[in-house]
Amino acid sequence: MTVAASLRSRRARDPLPGFRLALGGTLLWVGLIVALPLTALIVRPWQEGPSAMLAALHDGRMFAALRVSFTTALLAALIDVPLGLTLAWALVRGRLPGRRIADGLIDLPFAIPTAVTGITLATLYGPQGWLGAPLAKLGLSIAYSATGIVVALMFVGLPFIVRSVEPVLRDLPPELEEAAGLLGARPWQTVWRVILPTLLPAAVSGFGLAFARGIGEYGSVIFIAGNQPYHSEIAPLLVVVRLQEYDYAGATSIAFVLLVISSLCLAAVAWLRRRVARGLIVGADE
After folding, report:
1. Which residues of 123-148 are buried (b: 16+ CB within 10 A; e: fewer)?
2. Mean pLDDT for back-to-back runs of 10 residues, the chain (286 residues)
3. Is residue 135 within 8 Å of residue 125, measured between CB atoms?
4. Which of 153, 155, 165, 180 minimizes the C-alpha distance to 69?
5. Where exactly are the structural domains of the chain?
6. What are the phi and psi torsion angles at 70 (to 5°)?
7. Which whole-number Å values give the CA distances from 86 to 48, 166, 179, in the listed order?
8. Degrees, nearest 5: CA angle 274-280-286
9. Is the C-alpha dihedral spanning 87, 88, 93, 95 positive or negative?
10. Cα(160)–Cα(47) distance, rounded to whole angstroms?
């Protein structure tokens, strides 16, 4: 085989010059910043023997903090789904004044520091706040409770729902809705049978992202939660408390348990997303 033929054959097999080198460098970098820290987190709790893990598994405060973190994150993500769908619809299909400003404000929770978010929400919903004072007169307490945690997680999780649904909604042709109307479908039937099934996989993806963000959220929560052990203390805060007590084994044990439960929950969300998408594909083929 001549040199020219060898070069042509190599180019046919590798259409992107330097792809293997770039792929190797990328995998190495991802391994250093993702795989290596996760491996250390998995190995560290067992270095001092199983006693640290057994102590963590008998820590009622840890399980209470995990319960608060996961229940509030789940509730906030569930509430964000209909709100995000409605807001995405208003941004894509609506012709409201100030729509561009509202579209820019959606990404604000991504940009501002989480501590600023927490202080702002605590001031707003506190006993003397603009919203907290009228609600307190009605007997509703938002700040320094689990309800305040849900409000904070709704704020930071809403953009995930909107940005997941918005591209799918933009690609959804309005002709489908018009065809459903011509066939006699009522508006609620068009929404339920035509629009929502198409948006459901994206909504599940956004729900998973908002739920994952809520589990690990720290800065925007601690200022409004009250941080009462067994009541409004979140798992990330308990990890920080253990570190401040120089209980590194206990902190890594709690982080390990949090990692395992979070991975299982995210795997369940990914499984649900695949099932929903597969059901839509099978329904379309039929």
Report:
1. bebbeebebbeebbeeeebbbbbbbb
2. 52 60 76 74 72 74 91 95 91 78 83 88 87 85 89 93 90 77 76 82 90 89 88 90 84 84 86 77 50
3. yes
4. 153
5. 15-47, 58-285
6. -75, -40
7. 51, 10, 22
8. 135
9. positive
10. 38
User: What pLDDT, on the 0 to 100 scale, is given for residue 7?
Assistant: 45
pLDDT at residue 79 in the model:
95
The pLDDT of residue 16: 59
Tokens of 249: 């084994």
CB-neighbour burial class of residue 272 (10 A; exposed 0-12, middle 13-18, buried 19+): middle
Q: How many CB atoms neighbour CB 62 within 10 A?
A: 22
Burial of 159 (0-12, 13-18, 19+ CB in 10 A): buried
CA dist 121 and 15 (Å) reads: 52
- C-alpha span between 257 and 52 (Å, rounded): 12
Residues comprising the chain, all counted: 286
Residue 129: per-residue pLDDT: 84
Note the Cα 33 to chain centre separation in Å. Answer: 20
Task: Please give the pLDDT value at position 149.
Answer: 93
Task: At 157, list the tokens.
Answer: 């999780």
**Fold annotation for 58-285:** MetI-like fold (1.10.3720)
